[in-house]
Amino acid sequence: MEKKMPREMTGAELKSMLKSSINFKSLGGMKCEELTLPEEDKQWWRDAKIGMFIHWGLYSILGRGEWARFNEKIPKEEYEALADEFIPEDFSMDEWTEIARSFGANYAVMVTRHHDGFALWNSEGSYEHFDSGHRGSHRDFVQEYVDACRKAGLKVGLYYSPMDWRFPGYFDPKGLPENAALMKKQCYDQVEELCSRFNPDILWYDGGWLAHKGSDTSSAWFWEPVKLNKMARSYNPKLLINPRSGWEGDFYCDEGSHEIKGKIIPVPWEKNMCVCSGCSWGWMADDPVSDFDWLIRMMVNVVCRGGNWLVNIGPDRNGKISDEIKNRMREVGDWLRTYGESVYCTQAGPFEPVDDVFGSTYHGNKVYVHVLDTKAFADQVLPKLENEIMDAALFDGRQVEVMETEDGYRFVLPETEAAPDTIVVLTMKNPVEKMKDAQIYFTGKE
To answer: Which domain holds residue 326?
Structure first.
């Protein structure tokens, strides 16, 4: 049987299809059938839904964001001297995994090396041994993180930036090819260290573009991402890889705190954002924490469109998280401990979302209608399903009246207190038929 090839879709078509502000990173990455994971190997990630992102490094000492060295043009010697000060006091990785668990996360992604070049493990591949194993604390923080995640039952994600501001060849790869080659060698050596030594479940790239121009995809000629990721997969054939290396990846990424609107997105994707304002991924002392209701609505809007939700925290120089952030993460986790069956292990649908009004998820014979605006929802008519509705109730068990019309269903909710998400649970006669992902290759071209 001839294998069906993914339909190529331009960036303009993507925007038109979604009718939203979504911005998938690294569209049009290199293809490689050999690297394509079967759907069953991605299922654990699709079911996990919630993850916790962690940005921590030398920039956490400064507290002015992870781009401080580049933005402020801090001299090399001055910035790199921070490596000898990076000695967190009274810190255990268990603190982070406890926050992740209280948040309801099933996986975590830790920055192992950002664009400044400082690696958080004992890295023999690090150029000039610019890493935590050889400087300052003499600790292997990646090993500590991996051990803590495994103990806590969290899947392990490792973030890695191929680019490195310490190399002049990064800014002029064709004019300084030998120096650029040193940076590339460091990338290959360090990715091999991360995959061979720590056996991650997710490899999360960021920063494949060159000279701060173009995109990860336009710089694929330099990094040879198919070669790089074949090497990574040689240590774990089921390793999930994001699209930020210049290869198309196993899932798409939308980055930032902008709202998610539009229809169900028929491909694996992940929303990456901060629990704080989003003006920085690294620690900033006065960065305001996002409102609880807003976070719940964001999560619902993501999950009801088929996405995962990866939420970032930025620990300070000692690895500590403020009580305000911890309390907010715990509040979201408390909500998930009550209503998690409507999120975890679900698929988006069977009803298409209506922006700011409702969305839906389903699992087995249960459909969860997430109502964001109860007043506007009263006027909604949801399309008929071939499957029969046997019961409709709120999570607390109070019945919801289902009025069937020629066009579909209208639901009459009992009086409820104001909430960021009011969930109607529909019990269907038969399990809801699972919708398959679309075979789409987003080219990124307009």
So the answer is: 26-342
